[in-house]
Specification:
alpha+beta, six-stranded mixed sheet, 1501 residues, globular, ten-stranded mixed sheet, 34 helices, single chain
């Protein structure tokens, strides 16, 4: 055994030592780059073994010496200068089964995960290795690895390794169920609320901090309130809007209190105090919410955890999660909803809602965790008990064990001195009717109420007392009848029964109905859990139709218990019911839903997938000889071994060893068991190949491809036994896993033929691209067939599909290599690949043969019927004052309707206009507003008022427009032929001095034009503009100038300082004489140095292109008479001197960032480029933006006295939509995304933008993409944000800023705050705008609100009309604050509209937010809707504190408070504003009259 001396090196210090492992090739003549070597200390054969990959050889390394990076050596406890053994190993022997990779503060889409997996295949990794995937700009770290049933410290990732991605910056929803048990005490005497908050949440937040997680968190308290009433008439009018009825006819209302909304914190423990405060008043607030004076309302009670709104809560979070592509942020990945309940994991639920919830959670790939702080019961949980409307004696309860909820039980590690007993059952309360009545109703109230109300509560416990459960169970849970027999026979219960699923349902013709001698009730049971049930399953027969309820039937049957059970045979519709006390008795056929998440679980020693927080508690005294080994010491996410008493303490007096399920090992392996509490972690030890051979006999040998799976548990492979103890899955709660990109279920051939509809289509990317290359105006490199194929797979992964990894060849699929879904290459000439993908019951096969891609789709022949649940609730968001009504729809999405053909053609044609992105394709988008930069917070701090805007805003329109032009140049990736010179200062009276375009002391070529000493000498009030380096071309380009002015070549290119007054016959700073001809002006414009700046040669732009804004500003400085620059340009166009850059002569000159080119140029010059000649193709390539409201920049306009719009005789329109030249609000252009050429993928997208820029308006830019990687898009937008940083800034905004209730896309737990506007402040109660005609008053009210918002610094946002013109809908205008932190909306408050639209329920919107009912006679309140911008990270939010305020008040809350005060006219602020506005109007009228009088005098004279 050859020994080597071990050295260590630090990466980066020496170029020749830049790898993990450096060695000398002479020592290893047989070694190759890419080989894997094993390194370990010779004296510790079973000690730490390190695997590293050879990436390079180094001759400078001495003989018999190897050098390891020092960080790795320390982690693996390898001492420098010690001797080690090193040998080359076969990668297959050290292959990893699964690996977990964590990443933080970045967005990694599923297609990026797939590319990263491909990149990592055949590489060697070790614990905590940092991985940098530069092509995709992805940074991540290795967290944990499993191989052959145990954790290891290093290994090789192969094609078959399952990669689990875990994100430490996810979107996390924490829901606290405030059911009645929260006010009960646990066995240690703590309130369950204290156990949840002081125990579980405190511990969770500590773990987040320890792992430096940066989740974006929303915390919601929720509960259900029942009302003891028989009919709606017992409720006062104001309560009826939100009431719902359950299956028993009880009235209830659901309440949601949002405590924290979309926040990130370094230390979450500060939030706990806030939750405790809310807890003290929660129950009283919710139960007494509707109480009014002199009004009787039915008594209210808080529901128990079982009866609570558990599924509704999950769906509410799903409504937000499934819109993840709308408000994409680039610093988080992953979604998790956690419900914390004081119950024990049993919920009474509606079957339809269960089906919706299950399908949505599985399809959307959202992690859903349920944490119970109650004690773990003796049966399998989580358990959903379906509502049973049939109350007859023989109707059996039907249960479901959802595998799509990850269950944890939190228990504190307190010890009780006098007892070690832990109760696992909560006994039902049995008090006398009177005492219960006192609790519920209050003394002497409503006997009727009492009887009705208590009948619901107590019937649940009645049959506990006299019921032969064993006999009953045996009959209910007996297996299915054999098909040959008619009567139902008993079979010994020990057998496992299999439940047929939809795919193999034999009794399709309802044959069993003919078998039953008894009558089947008319009510049929709805379709249940699709994995177990069949659409045709009817309700169990109720065999005594006249017996209406349990207690009556008990009274009538006084004979013996047995007769109750044996009234008649129980008819069973084709499936066994689930027995929660023995769920393993029923196994189910595997489906893709069941296997959707299984690849995130590691394989235990027995080859079974395990969840590490379920432990088998086996008494050590049971005579079992085999020692027990703890595989994963605990599921702590922080360190690998914390001796947590709650997980491992001996609580029962008896000595228990806790082990992961099925982790019984042979003696040979047990010597390596973990040392508890010791940091020497066992997985550093050497792997044992004998492990897999020593399977204990009592463990069922289940494999991943088995046909059956257990009902209980997320993996379906762990058997539930009463001895299982469930701990907390801390790993899932701290670094939640993303949906795995691989799965392993594919239906068999018979099932494919019988149950699926097959459709296919072929794509020929080469032919498509050939056709498009002919017709396309702009050439772009097309995607190769292989790239198209890869992109098609990427798109399916991005929409939630998973790659199917098949072990054996599926019969339906062609030749498939084992272990991977990719075919081996057959003929050497043709590429041959095949991918299988699935989501739900939809399977896609994508095969690439030569240059043909075939897409085969399998969709279910009998799809589930679409279900839609309408849900109403009350919610109270932060800074709101009330619980407002809202409504939302829960519906399953029909995934089979996704238009994949359109998407695939979009990819083939590289995003051509023929295949635009549609809403149904769920493309990603990032929406931004460009706002003027102003330092607001300090100004507010100095004057303590927020309505300071018209007074403090310096008019820097010019700078903002210049900044904007720079930004759009960057977005368009345009470069100037030479640096744009710093423009002259806005102060026009010093134009006699030469500046702007002066070349008095022309700088040296390498100095650039910015540093000219002349710039400082002029004494301009502006700093020299520093052009972004990308636009600066210090050398004038020789080849481009001579084609227009050959004589300038020598002078201009060499940069020689010319005579002061002129340069090549053109006066340098000329003022055109009043009678200068158009041709003279045009010639001066064309001058290569002093003329208008042209853009560098760019594909699809003609040569000599400029933008109209530059031309206008150039003309303004040279025209000293009243000639209008815009009219001159238009005259040049008419004279055919210039033309729109698309070559379209019909397009007039529009001021703004609009392209025009010089028509008269030498057509034979070598770099002459003609225009495209296709306007629509040109617009698809280039952003063109018209400038409005800033014509004063290029033409002096007379100053008028400003009259507020709401007092003008004819108010100006609110937005530019009526006056813009092309009548469109938005336009879309193609966008190349990978500007820095980093990605190995062809990336492109689209940019949608406003067609008009107007100062004091928000300018909207939206980036849209499907074929791009998150980090690359983030890089692009980051670049823009830096570009627009001097006088403007870009802020991200949500797709639906106001999130009004009842709207389709809004977040159900977000809503606007209504701020009423006082309209009765005039003396003597006079109405506003009395002096104006009545039909203009409602508009004037809007303009008054507009003026108030402007005072507070809000800018209007122009939006597209939501509805068709035909509807008489109220006008509404939306605003954004100039800091980007908040939005406001105003709506016309007239009574002349009434909406009868049940879908959008606009009437409800106004009712719940504006606080009035549907009754149109009620006067509508005038006011503002106010909403926060949750897209701004709240660390930035919180940074804006007002320093002078008493308690460091947040700027945003100060704004809201001050705005409320202004609108309520406190300190007469509103009336003062009104009188100031009237005064301005009077002055303007006076000024006008004076002008008219002087004109008359002149006329008379």
């Amino acid at each position: 055994m050859k020994l080597y001396k071990l050295n260590t090196h630090t990466r980066g210090c020496n170029k020749s030592y830049d790898a993990d492992l450096v060695m000398n090739l002479k020592d290893h003549p047989n070694a190759n780059v890419g080989d894997v070597v094993e390194i370990y200390a010779p004296d510790e054969e079973n000690g730490t073994h390190l695997l590293l990959q050879i990436t390079e050889f180094n001759g400078s390394c001495g003989r018999d010496v190897i050098s390891i990076e020092s960080g790795i050596a320390n982690a693996f406890k390898m001492r420098p200068y010690s001797n080690v053994v090193m040998r080359i190993v076969n990668p297959a022997d050290v292959a990893l089964d699964s690996i977990e990779i964590t990443f933080k503060d970045q967005y990694m889409g599923r297609s990026e995960m797939w590319r990263l997996k491909t990149y990592l295949t055949d590489t060697c990794v070790y614990v905590n290795k940092k991985i940098d995937y530069n092509d995709m700009q992805i940074r991540c770290q290795v967290y944990e690895m499993w191989s052959q049933g145990e954790r290891v410290a290093s290994g090789v990732i192969t094609e078959d390794t399952k990669i689990v991605f875990r994100s430490s910056t996810s979107m996390v929803y924490l829901f606290l169920q405030m059911s009645s048990e929260m006010w009960d005490f646990d066995i240690h005497g703590d309130l369950y609320f204290e156990k949840a908050v002081n125990g579980f949440l405190t511990e969770l937040f500590q773990k987040w901090r320890k792992l430096s997680c940066n989740h974006e968190v929303t915390i919601v308290l929720f509960s259900r309130t029942f009302y003891a009433a028989k009919s709606l008439d017992e409720f006062p009018e104001h309560m009826r809007d939100c009431l719902q009825q359950d299956y028993k006819g009880r009235f209830y209302e659901d309440f949601y209190r949002v405590a924290i909304q979309n926040e990130r914190c370094d230390d979450w423990c500060t939030v706990l105090g806030q939750l405790r405060k809310l807890f003290t008043s929660y129950q009283a607030t919710v139960l007494r919410y509707h109480e009014r004076e002199n009004m009787k309302i039915p008594p209210a009670t808080n529901s128990s955890a079982t009866q609570g709104n558990f599924l509704e809560v999950l769906n509410i979070s799903l409504n937000t999660f499934e819109k993840h592509y709308l408000d994409r942020t680039f610093d988080r990945t992953g979604q998790l909803s956690v419900v914390i309940t004081p119950g024990v994991g049993v919920f009474s639920v509606d079957r339809e809602l269960t089906n919706i919830t299950k399908q949505r959670i599985i399809d959307n790939g959202v992690g859903s965790d349920l944490v119970c702080v109650g004690e773990q019961p003796l049966h399998a949980v989580p358990l959903l008990k379906f509502h049973n409307k049939d109350t007859t004696l023989t109707s059996a309860d039907d249960y479901s064990l959802p595998h799509w909820i990850n269950l944890s039980f939190y228990s504190t590690n307190k010890k009780i001195a006098y007892s070690s007993f832990i109760p696992r059952i909560k006994l039902p309360l049995f008090g006398s009717q009177v005492t219960l009545h006192d609790v519920v109703v209050g003394e002497g109230e409503g006997e009727e109420n009492e009887r009705h109300f208590l009948s619901c509560n107590q019937s649940e416990y009645k049959h506990n007392s006299l019921f032969d459960y064993d006999a009953y169970d045996e009959q209910i849970f007996q297996p299915l009848p054999a098909q040959s027999t008619c009567s139902l026979q008993r079979i010994v219960r020990a057998k496992k029964t299999s439940v047929p699923s939809l795919e193999t349902y034999a009794y399709r013709n309802n044959d069993w109905e003919n078998l039953t001698p008894t009558q089947i009730p008319s009510m049929r049971r709805k379709m249940s859990d699709p994995d177990i049930h069949h659409g045709t399953s009817a309700m169990l027969a109720a065999l005594q139709p006249d017996t209406t309820n349990l207690s009556e039937s008990l009274a009538s049957e006084k004979n013996s218990r047995r007769t109750i059970v044996s009234i008649a045979p129980i008819v069973r519709p084709g499936r066994a019911l689930i027995n929660p006390f023995d769920p393993s008795q029923v196994t189910i056929k595997l489906t893709s839903n069941r296997r959707r998440w299984t690849h995130i679980f590691p394989k235990g020693p027995t080859g079974v997938l395990i969840q590490q927080h379920h432990y088998q508690a086996v008494p050590a005294k049971t005579g079992q000889q085999r020692p027990l080994q703890q595989i994963q010491n605990n599921s702590q996410s922080g360190s690998n071994n914390n001796n947590e008493q709650e997980d491992y303490g001996c609580e029962n007096g008896e000595q228990y060893d806790r082990v992961s399920s099925h982790s019984l090992l042979s003696k040979s392996a047990s010597s390596q068991s973990f040392v508890m509490g010791d940091e020497k972690i066992d997985f550093f030890k050497r792997r044992q190949n004998s492990l897999m051979n020593a399977l204990p006999a009592n463990v069922p040998n289940l494999t991943a491809t088995q046909a059956k799976s257990y009902l209980w548990g997320a993996t379906g492979e762990q058997e539930w036994t009463p001895a299982i103890t469930t701990g907390v899955d801390w790993k899932s709660l701290t670094i939640p896993a993303c949906l795995p990109i691989t799965t392993d279920y594919f239906p068999d051939k018979r099932s494919l033929n019988n149950d699926y509809v097959i459709s296919d289509y072929t794509l020929l990317p080469d032919d498509v691209n050939h056709d498009y290359a002919q017709s396309r105006a702009v050439y772009r490199k097309p995607l190769s067939t292989e790239e198209v194929c890869k992109e098609i797979v990427s798109q399916r992964l991005a929409q939630g599909f998973q790659l199917i990894v098949v072990d054996e060849k599926p019969p339906s699929v062609g030749n498939c290599s084992s272990g991977s879904a990719v075919l081996p290459v057959k003929p050497p000439c043709e590429i041959n690949k095949e991918y299988l993908l699935s989501i739900g019951r939809i399977f896609h096969k994508i095969s690439l043969i030569g240059s043909v891609i075939t897409v085969t789709g399998y969709r279910p022949r009998h799809p589930y019927p679409p279900i839609n649940v309408d849900y109403r609730y009350r919610f109270h968001a932060p800074q709101h004052e009330t619980y407002e009504i809202s409504g939302v729809n829960f519906t399953t999405e029909k995934l089979e309707n996704f238009n994949w053909n359109h998407m695939d053609l979009y990819i083939c044609t590289r995003g051509d206009v023929d295949y635009p992105l549609m809403e149904s394709l769920k493309y990603w988008r990032y929406r931004m507003y460009l706002l003027p930069r102003e330092n607001i917070v300090n100004k507010i701090a100095s004057c303590q008022r927020c309505d300071i805007f018209p007074d403090v805003t310096a008019d820097n329109t010019r700078e903002q427009v210049e900044d904007f032009v720079r930004l759009i140049e960057a977005v368009s990736k345009l470069k100037r032929q030479y640096a744009r010179k710093a423009r002259d200062s806005p102060i026009a009276h010093i134009t006699k001095r030469r500046h702007s375009t002066s070349i008095i002391s022309r700088p040296q070529p390498n100095q650039g034009l910015m540093n000219s000493p002349f710039r400082e000498r002029v004494g301009s009030n502006r700093l020299p503009e520093k052009r972004p380096s990308i636009n600066v071309r210090p050398k004038l380009e020789n080849g481009r100038i001579p084609r227009i002015f050959p004589a300038t070549d020598a002078v201009a290119a060499a940069g020689i300082a010319a005579r002061d007054d002129q340069d090549d016959g053109f006066p340098v700073d000329i003022k055109f004489s009043p009678n200068a001809t158009l041709a003279e002006i045009f010639e001066a414009m064309k001058h290569p140095v002093n003329g208008v700046g042209y853009f560098s040669q760019t594909q699809s732009l003609p040569s000599c292109t400029f933008v109209s804004y530059d031309a206008l500003m150039w003309l303004k400085t040279r025209l000293n008479n009243g000639r209008h620059p815009l009219e001159l340009l238009e005259a040049m166009r008419k004279e055919r001197m210039i033309c729109h850059a698309s070559g379209d002569w019909k397009k007039p000159v529009v001021p703004g960032f609009v392209f025009y080119y010089v028509v008269q140029q030498d057509k034979n010059a070598k770099d002459y480029a003609p225009p495209l000649g296709d306007y629509s193709a040109f617009v698809n390539e280039w952003l063109e933006i018209e400038f409005q409201g800033c014509s004063f920049l290029w033409h002096d306009e007379p100053v008028t006295t400003p009259v507020p719009n709401f007092l003008r005789d004819s108010p100006a329109p609110q937005s530019w939509t009526e006056t813009c030249s092309n009548k469109r609000v938005y336009r879309q252009s193609h966008l190349e995304i990978d500007v820095n050429q980093k990605s190995d993928r062809m990336e492109w997208g689209h940019v949608k933008h406003h067609t008009v820029l107007q100062p004091r308006f928000a300018f909207e830019i939206v980036v849209e993409w499907v074929t791009s990687s998150g980090p690359i898009v983030a890089d692009l937008i980051g670049g823009w944000m830096r570009k627009a940083n001097q006088f403007n800034f870009l802020v991200s905004v949500p797709a639906d800023p106001m999130a009004e209730p009842f709207t389709k896309k809004s977040d159900p737990l977000r809503g606007p705050i209504f701020i009423p506007l006082c309209t009765t402040f005039l003396p003597n109660g006079a109405a506003l705008f009395d002096e104006f005609p009545e039909d203009s008053r409602s508009d004037r009210m809007l303009f008054l609100q507009d003026a108030i918002l402007a005072k507070f610094g809000f800018l209007p946002c122009v939006l597209e009309k939501k509805y068709s013109i035909g509807k008489d809908l109220p006008k509404e205008y939306q605003y954004v604050h100039c800091t980007g932190n908040m939005f406001a909306l105003i709506r016309c408050a007239t009574n002349n509209y009434q909406v009868e639209s049940p879908i959008l329920q606009e009437a409800n919107v106004t009712r719940c937010v504006y606080g009035h009912t549907n009754n149109t006679n009620v006067p509508k309140k005038v006011g503002f809707l106010w909403a926060w911008n949750h897209m701004i990270p709240n660390k930035k939010w919180k940074a804006q504190t007002i320093n002078n305020s008493a308690d460091g008040e947040l700027f945003q809350l100060k704004m809201l408070k001050d705005f409320r005060e202004f609108c309520s006219n406190s300190d007469q602020r509103l009336s003062t504003f009104w009188s100031q506005s009237q005064e301005l109007r009077r002055r303007a009228q006076k000024f006008e009259n004076n002008n008219n009088n002087t004109d008359e005098v002149k006329v008379r004279a």
